[in-house]
């Protein structure tokens, strides 16, 4: 689910709607519809769409995914293989988590695949992927000394993946939404990454911040800080903090 704060609906899926068409005169005067016409849609709506055909599939024809027991067995086998591969690495270390923890290995693979994908794409604004990657690797490596190495690594990868997804428009987005901050105009765009992030545009520059847990409104922190409240937001850009009001949806 993509949570984007007050007034910014989630982009969460596809809405399926069934439309029933009818001639206005039929509803204006129900008595004008004969018994025959009431049972014959074509008589009332000569141009009505044909009724959808229902195709019934047999049990053998139904698409089947893996059941819970199969997935559990596969995960267990993979965990055992990773533990065997990484056995010589000391426990609860940076290198151990990168090598052995299945969720972390999946994030490493996802980032590697994403970097290959964006190499052939054009970013939404000028981006130096190589320089960003080098800076990110320095921040990731700082997790070696973090009190919670496991969570530090996981969030580092999630944020880098989200950064690339926003820069190259690879996820659903809500915006840009205009905010006026005194004499300063900003645009905020909310991206359905994990965790959700907000892109703040100002004077041709784009900065990103990721949603953080908070008890007071919606809070984003990163290259810029955004604290949302109904109809507005406090935005800290470099050393400047603005009180902003939303001017468009």
Automatic annotation (TrEMBL):
This is Lysozyme inhibitor LprI N-terminal domain-containing protein. InterPro entries: Lysozyme_Inhibitor_LprI. The lineage of its organism: Bacteria, Pseudomonadati, Pseudomonadota, Gammaproteobacteria, Aeromonadales. Residues 1-28 form the signal peptide. PANTHER family: LIPOPROTEIN LPRI. Keywords: Signal.
């Amino acid at each position: 689910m993509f949570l984007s704060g007050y007034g910014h609906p989630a982009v969460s899926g596809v809405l399926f709607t069934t439309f029933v068409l009818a001639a206005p005169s039929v509803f204006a005067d129900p008595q004008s519809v004969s018994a025959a016409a009431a049972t014959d849609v074509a008589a009332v709506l000569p141009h009505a769409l044909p009724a959808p055909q229902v195709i019934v599939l047999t049990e053998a024809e139904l698409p089947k995914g893996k059941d819970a027991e199969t997935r559990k067995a596969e995960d267990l086998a993979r965990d055992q293989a990773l533990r065997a591969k990484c056995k010589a690495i000391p426990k609860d270390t940076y290198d151990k988590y990168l090598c052995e923890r299945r969720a972390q290995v999946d994030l490493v693979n996802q980032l590697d695949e994403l970097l290959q994908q964006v190499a052939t794409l054009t970013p939404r604004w000028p981006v130096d992927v190589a320089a960003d990657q080098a800076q990110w690797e320095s921040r990731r490596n700082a997790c070696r000394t973090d009190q919670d190495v496991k969570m530090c690594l996981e969030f580092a990868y999630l944020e880098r993946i989200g950064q690339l997804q926003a820069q190259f428009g690879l996820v659903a987005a809500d915006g840009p939404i205009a905010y006026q901050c005194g004499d300063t105009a900003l645009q905020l765009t909310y991206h359905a990454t994990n965790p959700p992030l907000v892109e703040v545009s100002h004077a041709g520059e784009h900065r990103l911040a990721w949603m953080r847990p908070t008890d007071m409104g919606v809070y984003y922190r990163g290259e810029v800080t955004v604290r949302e409240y109904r109809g507005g937001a406090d935005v800290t850009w470099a050393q400047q903090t603005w009180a902003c009001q939303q001017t468009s949806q």
